[in-house]
Design goal:
There is one protein chain. The protein is mostly beta strands. The chain has one domain: Lipocalin (Beta Barrel), CATH 2.40.128. The chain is about 0% helix and about 55% strand. It is built from no helices and 8 strands. It has strands spanning about 10-15, 25-30, 35-45, 70-75, 80-90, 95-100, 105-115, 120-125. An 8-stranded antiparallel barrel has the order 1-2-3-4-5-6-7-8. It is globular and about 40 Å long. The model has no long low-confidence stretch (mean pLDDT about 95).
Length: about 130
Amino acid sequence: MLAVSAQSVLGKWKTIDDKTGKARSIVSIYEERGKLFGNITELVDPDEPNPVCEECTDERKGQPIIGLQIIRDLVRDGKAYANGKILDPENGKEYKCKIWVDPEDADKLNVRGYIAFLYRTQVWHRTE
């Protein structure tokens, strides 16, 4: 099992909405069988109580957002983790994913989603 350190991607992270800049959820990143996964453990000020993933197109369709696995199968790639997928429950789309702890601030996680050569990077904030 991977040890949790200041530079570790493991633990709980607060996601930030790109449009509003407000906290959206807490995602718990954990290691299983040598790969990293992430589940939504909490929603911050949700629009509705106990929402489900209406837009998902796989086995997650109709599943509660709280507990939903949104990060799958990331493997170590140098100081980052890559070659996995991240789900955006808002639109049901899955993207290739790469995550790494900010080298300047261990309490910030860079989360990058890719479509072909285009990408978007979010910064998540450590909560523990």
